[in-house]
Amino acid sequence: MMGATEPTPTEPDERRDDEPPWRLWVAPAAIAAGLAAGVLGSSLVAVIGQPAGTSVSHPTPAVALIGDLVFDLSFVGAALYFAGLHSPLRARDFGFRRIAPRMAIAAVLLAGAGYYLLTAEYAHLVHLHGSDKLPSELGAGKSTVALVAAGVFVCVIAPVAEEFFFRGFLFGALRRWRVAIAGRDIGIWLAAVITGILFGLAHTGSASSQYLIPLGFLGFVLCIVRWRTRSLYPCIALHSTNNSLALGVNQLHWNAIEIVALIVSSLFVIGAATGPLGARPAPA
Q1: What would the pLDDT profile of 70-113 be if each residue is shown by its tens digit?
Q2: Can you say how many angstroms the Cα of residue 67 is from the centroid of all Cα atoms in its chain?
Q3: How confident is the model at residue 55 (pLDDT cuts 50, 70, 90)?
Q4: pTM > 0.85: yes or no
């Protein structure tokens, strides 16, 4: 027999200390609000940029960058708004919890290995080809300034914003869903699957359609990392590393030293920006 119930704030003993107090309904509400605000905001950016020779179908790199930034921040804003309706905003509820470096590194390596092995098998089966369209839309190969801007967005801003929304907020809300099958609660796994699917679909347009399935699996894996480590930091680190590899290998064709430098510098900037949000160490 299968049943699903939504926990209430009056039942704090039924949730782990790293589960947020948000109601289940805030998840679809934030998705709808973030999508509406993102589409409206990025459309306004395209309209404002028309005098500079841009269009909705062919934006200039600067307009594309600002539009993508507005789109991502719209979801961040929606998450903050709906999360703050029922309780004070706390960074730790979104997963900003300090974690032992050894545990974080192990989680990133294990999850990354699983993701890349499955992606390699998928690529072999479907003859995967194509690449992420976003760096080229941001003009990564046209000038040094555009390259730096694209690198900051792809390897720093996007991983932080997307992990904040998908693993920090959305997965945090959906995992409160209690779904029992044969006496076992599978709510966590169902929340991870739903979040992974939505994460893959969120990249429609910026990535080749063949890549949406491995991206969905990456979203699922990142949810498991968030659940098992109780921290968002390993998720951000893996997401940033994956984006850095995709940018450095597939788009820029850099050598190993340059790619490692991109990964390390991106993680350093992310750590400096988000590290102070980790109030206290997460329980082992």
Answers
A1: 999 999 999 999 999 988 999 999 999 999 999 999 999 999 99
A2: 17
A3: low
A4: yes
Average pLDDT over residues 238-250: 92
Domain boundaries along the sequence of the chain: 24-88, 100-279
Q: Which two tokens stand for residue 240?
A: 């940033």
